[in-house]
Fold this sequence. Notes:
Number of strands: 2
Number of helices: 5
Radius of gyration: 20 Å
Largest sheet: 2 strands, antiparallel
Strand content: 5-15%
Helix content: over 70%
Strand order of the largest sheet: 1-2
Amino acid sequence: MTSWQNWFVFKADISSGRAKSPRLDALVTARGAKEMAHATRFAIFVLSAALAGLAFFTLHSFWAWAAPIALSVAGSLLAEYAFGRLASPEEKQRDLEDRVRNPPT
C-alpha cells in the first residue's frame, strides 16, 4: 500500500503505538467473519424477498406467481452459496449443528 492509503485506512492507536483499523480488524477476526457471513446471507435473503414481492405486485399475468417463486429459490441458493464461501469450516459446522438441534417447524 502507498503512504496515502495507509493514512486513509489506518488510524493510529496512541495507547499501543501501532496502526489499527476497526474495519479490517472486524474482517480478520473469526467473530467478524462469522458476522459477515451471516449478515451477507440475511441481506441476500431480504433482497430476494423484496424482489419477489415487487414482482408479485407488478406483474399481472402467468408470471405473477412464477416470478416470485423463481426469485425466492434463486435468492435462497445464492444466500447459501455466499455463506458457504464466506464462513469458516468451524462456523459451517456450528450452523449445521444448530439446524439439527433447532429444526424449522
